[in-house]
Amino acid sequence: DVQLLESGGGLVQPGGSLRLSCAASGITFSNYDMNWVRQAPGQGLEWVSAISGGGGSTYYADSVKGRFTISRDNSKNTLFLQMNSLRAEDTAVYYCAKSKGLSWYYFDYWGQGTLVTVSS
Amino acid sequence: EIVLTQSPATLSLSPGERATLSCRASQSVSSFLAWYQQKPGQAPTLLIYAASNRATGIPARFSGSGSGTDFTLTISSLEPEDFALYYCQQRSNWPLTFGGGTKVETK
Q1: Contact, B96 vs B34, CB < 8 A?
Q2: What gap in Å lies between CA B69 and CA A87, rounded to an integer?
């Protein structure tokens, strides 16, 4: 059974940093591209970032480019999102989402989400 | 950036009725479109990928159609558990984008 478990969310002041993690199980992790998708309170879904199975290619939404960094450790089946220079508008539930296959950026498994609140 | 526009914003229907949801792209996405269902307090669930392929475990009452810029998600006969939010998503171009969502509510 595929499981994705996010951690690392919390309350942070504007300008601060946070690192999210997503532990995957039930899959051969390196075979799949992975993603972060966020949802602000009461709002729709926003794709944030993606990383290829081997980690060699990364992609970002314009809203986070230069501030967020996606990475992965395939030896530990873990996905990361380093978030710097956080803003109030980054407040959201952050979901880790597995791509259906290599270069198939449809999200077939999602974690339960971790809440990030940016506020003073 | 490809903008996906979903309509209507809200669809008020009764159980057993047919639901037709629309997603229009600002430029062609070929067939690189997916549909998701989201219930309150839960993560989204993949329903349809590549415009018309049902994801694993999704009931046959859900179907997707379209290509290019116009797409449709059809629920042939609404079950009580189908009242939820629905989003489309394109993977044709970076950045990946989602539509704003359609809420299917009980009439």
Answers
A1: no
A2: 34
Q: Does B30 touch chain A (CB under 8 A)?
A: no
- DSSP secondary structure, A22-85, as one string: EEEESS-GGGS-EEEEEE-TT--EEEEEEE-TTS--EEE-TTTTTTEEEEEETTTTEEEEEE-S
Q: B43 and A110 in contact by Cβ < 8 A?
A: yes
pLDDT (average), residues A60-69: 97
Query: Rounded CA gap, A84 and A29, in Å?
Result: 26
- Token digits of residue B60: 């046959």
Spatial separation of the C-alpha atoms in residues B68 and B28, rounded to whole Å: 4
Quick check: A68 and A60 in contact, CB under 8 A? Answer: yes
Q: For residues A116 and A64, give the distance between their C-alpha atoms in angstroms, rounded to a whole number.
A: 14
Give pLDDT tens digits for B36-73: 999 999 999 999 999 999 999 999 999 999 999 999 99
DSSP-derived pairing of the beta strands A45-51 and A58-60: antiparallel
The C-alpha of A106 sits at a distance from chain B's nearest C-alpha, in angstroms, of 7
Cβ-defined contact of B44 to A107 (cutoff 8 Å) = yes
Q: How far is A43 from chain B (nearest CA, A)?
A: 8
Mean pLDDT of chain B: 97
Contact residues, chain B, for A41 at CB < 8 Å: none
* Separation between Cα atoms, residue A20 and residue A55, nearest integer Å: 17
Which pLDDT score is estimated for A103? 74
Helix or strand or coil: residue A88?
Answer: helix
